[in-house]
Amino acid sequence: MNRRAGVIINGIQMKRESKSFTDALYAVLTAAGLFHGPTFMLSGLSGMAFKFSVHEKLFPFSVTAYGQWGKEHGPAIDNLGILTGHSGGRTRHDSFAVYQQAAIEDVKHSLDRGLACVYWIPEFGVIHGYDEDDRVFYVQDGSSTGTRYVLYDNFGLNITPFWYCQYIGDKVDIPLRDAVLESLRLALEDWETPYKTLPDQSIASGRLAYSFLIRALQQGEFDSSGAVYILESYLTARSEITSYLQEVESVLPGLNEVHSIYAELEEMVRGQLKVALPLTNSSRALVHQQLPSLCTTLQQALELEERAMQQLRIISGRYPDRKRSIIPRWGAHTAR
Predict the structure, then answer these.
(1) For 112-147, how does the pLDDT look when each residue is reduced to its tens digit (9 = 90+)?
(2) Which pTM value belongs to this model?
(3) In the list 86, 176, 222, 321, which could disulfide-bond 58, CB 3.0-4.6 Å?
(4) Cα–Cα dist 156/190, whole Å
(5) Residue 191: domain span
């Protein structure tokens, strides 16, 4: 088979509205006609909206440090009924060059089929084309309408030690009730897993992420830009959760109560952040005099979210959970 000279997938435009992975995935899926609806529905159904991670010093990478991406993104996309695969690892590994070349061919094959790919830039972006003569990929990062260029030789190389690329395939239909129920169970897993990057315990997830955030703000030793990014992303996610639950609350009995809790949480946090993170000259910065009030609000938000999760446990317990109650053929924790 002769390689095509190049491909550009038309009609794809990534926009930054949510977590960067969600935004990239949304652009890929909607362009392929594999998802219909607003971003918050994708964020909710995939469980991505519920992922909350915080570094003890509030570094900006906290927002994407929600675990090992293959293990986090796989179940998220599976719950949409979409076939997926990924390549990635650490660029320092001796095998990187081999995997890099294989991934380059996988990306071109996906693009030849009219399917864009999610790519770690960082943060996550979309590969939407390639040119074989110039040996470059065309990449969108969502921050503008422009296109970035990544040489084949530089594929996977970036300012972080990690590289990652996600591919998608065909789709099967999953009943909405089943998808919503699984999204709630993914949310519970995230909430109840304190560390997802073990053995490193400098990054907390779920319930514990609140404690890391509050403690850093109280002690005053934190990255200011990271704090702003974490708080903005946190509020965006809670807004998505609220909109998602409002959309699906009739699917499962009891979800209306969970929606009410998150609506209360979002309104409370949004009001506090208007004061603590005012918009000045198109950017936001923390007002340090507001930190005590902000910490009080976050503690109240933690208590509200704990109530919401207790209700999700009750809802989940009403239905069989075959994914977690039946041990797979190769065991529950197959090495990968």
Answers:
(1) 999 999 999 999 999 999 999 999 999 999 988 889
(2) 0.93
(3) 222
(4) 28
(5) 176-322
